Amino acid sequence: MQEYLVIKAEENGVQVIGLTRGEATKFHHAEKLDQGEVLVVQFTNHTSAIKVKGKAKIISSHGEVSAD
Predict the structure, then answer these.
(1) Vertex 49: Cα angle to 62 and 64 (nearest 5)
(2) What is the domain extent for residue 23?
(3) Could you report the per-residue pLDDT of 44-64, keeping only the tens digit for each?
């Protein structure tokens, strides 16, 4: 089973960027969230990393982290 993350924006304009898996890491998807919006994301065979820019809470099975 793949890992899921919940990302909750705590300000307008939070960017969530998916990065590819493989020899060359590239951006493959981007979302922009406004305050209070929630995005549920998943690591897949194509997604090896998720970058969060802006103030947000990131919740996973490993706990909760805040991005500033």
Answers:
(1) 25
(2) 4-67
(3) 888 888 999 999 999 999 999
